[in-house]
């Protein structure tokens, strides 16, 4: 269910009162009558979802434990928007003090969908929301929207590519999400994404791993793999089973990585010392939706007493 978003002034008086109470004291549980007094049924349902999430946060020992707990059961009952915002806060904490601006840009893949372009062999990722805004004329204000509605062609909008030479420019406009990065093998952003994944795992499990870009998986019958998104999970599962893969699915593969544990004792004993292969892919529409929980839930860790 997607929460309905509307201006506060369009809400009823009881809904506004509940909203103000939550903003004033988010840790206080509102009285049940406050929720039931909201006339709009959809608004009541949305507030129930919000209050359930706030309750989860209040019961948890940390944001990290909240995140892991969300995926510990069966169906995930938390809206994707809340999960993305939770991940954003955690990634921001992990990268506190980071000097390489390519890491926070690469870290945005953990909580912001990307639009992939693979023209002429260049794997470029741009923020999906930013791309859609430009495509709709939103970046040009009311005039741009009028042009789009009139079906007149817009001028091509070129987004800057963030790389080593101009990385410091990211700090001046990090909230605009308008930098493109290259995920090709050996490029700085590709390596920065590896560093973010390493820090993500160490932050949650205090386990050191080394992740490096990979051109191809040459090992047959590899021991373990992790798809960084739904597309990659299906692709790697099929390749591991020896299924015949359609060329269109293989073309969605954007990047490969190899993960090695620094201490084999931290890894499952039956595959200790073996590499773990990671993959990043786009869907049929060219959208990249990273699932950072896969790096945690599917990591072959040794059992902990």
Give an overview of the whole structure.
There is one protein chain. With 305 residues, the chain is α+β, with helices and mostly antiparallel strands. The protein folds into 2 domains: 8-94, no CATH class; 98-305, no CATH class. The chain has 12 helices and 9 strands. It has helices at 13-24, 32-36, 41-59, 63-70, 80-94, 102-107, 128-135, 141-149, 188-205, 230-241, 247-250, 293-297, and strands at 114-117, 124-127, 160-161, 179-182, 209-214, 224-227, 253-261, 276-281, 287-288. Strands 3-4-2-1-9 form a 5-stranded mixed β-sheet. The model is unreliable at 1-9 and 142-156 (pLDDT under 50).
Features:
disordered N terminus, 2 domains, 305 residues, single chain, globular, alpha+beta
Question: What does this entry show, briefly?
Answer:
By secondary structure, the protein is an alpha+beta fold.
Explain the layout of strands and helices.
Elements: H1 13-24, H2 32-36, H3 41-59, H4 63-70, H5 80-94, H6 102-107, E1 114-117, E2 124-127, H7 128-135, H8 141-149, E3 160-161, E4 179-182, H9 188-205, E5 209-214, E6 224-227, H10 230-241, H11 247-250, E7 253-261, E8 276-281, E9 287-288, H12 293-297
Parallel strand pairs: 3-4, 6-8
Antiparallel strand pairs: 1-2, 1-9, 2-4, 5-7, 7-8
Order of helices and strands: HHHHHHEEHHEEHEEHHEEEH
Structural class: alpha+beta
Quick one: how many beta strands? 9
Span of the ends, CA to CA: 38 Å
Residues in helix, %: 25-40%
Shape: globular
What's the gyration radius in Å? Answer: 22 Å
How would you sum up the major sheet?
5 strands, mixed
Mean of pLDDT: 86
Number of domains: 2
Q: What is the oligomer described by this structure?
A: single chain
Biggest sheet strand order reads: 3-4-2-1-9
Poorly predicted residue ranges: 1-9, 142-156
